[in-house]
């Protein structure tokens, strides 16, 4: 039997299917062909219907987007200048960026850690104009002109800050994740003059959590640093 004899003759369809039940399946040559045809038609119809509208939206958005001011920050961005660890920096940031994210993501100062990101653990503690703050809760743009010190800026060359050295001497850490924040907070604590007793140290360091439980060693390290600095308000 040759190929022509197997071919379906549409004129014979009424005799094969008087009720027309097969028409939906075979009118386009077969079920698979019909599905492909419908998919193509649906895609073409969507393109014809939505194409102009989508193009119009894109054009409108491009037209409405404000141009970058000459010599200024891009639209929606804010310029901020501050001094970090003694070095001046000028950044263009989204106004919603926290100081912690600016330090870590833009300046690669990753010593300050992102722990809870809610200001509850103290791992992100840095010094701003000598005062300790949770950098995860502070917007970077609010620190225009400020002097910021991170854990990277405490040592003087190869000479560790006394608090850093004391933490090493007294094993004031285990995993080390909270340690940068603990040290920055301890430096400020000594300058504030609150380290009069062990109880005072625990109270004024209570905003810095150590999930490893190294609190006795941390207290001992702060007392050691205080003694080496010559009093509660040592520099």
Mean pLDDT: 81
Measured as a percent range, the helix fraction is 40-55%
CATH topology of the domain at 154-235: DNA polymerase, domain 1
Number of strands: 5
Largest sheet data = 5 strands, mixed
Q: What form results from the Cα inertia axes? A: elongated
- The CA-CA distance between the termini, in Å, is 104 Å
Could you give a short description of this structure?
By secondary structure, the chain is of the alpha+beta class. Helix content is 42%, strand content 11%.
If you had to describe this structure to a student in words, what would you say it looks like?
This protein is α+β, with helices and mostly antiparallel strands. The chain has helices spanning 3-6, 13-16, 23-26, 31-64, 99-106, 162-169, 179-192, 198-204, 215-229, and strands at residues 78-84, 87-93, 125-128, 131-134, 147-149. Among the domains are: 77-150, Ubiquitin-like (UB roll) (Roll), CATH 3.10.20; 154-235, DNA polymerase, domain 1, CATH 1.10.150.120. The protein is built from 9 helices and 5 strands; from the N terminus they run H-H-H-H-E-E-H-E-E-E-H-H-H-H. A 5-stranded mixed beta sheet has the order 2-1-5-3-4, sandwiched between helices. Helix 6 (162-169) packs across helix 9 (215-229). The protein is elongated.
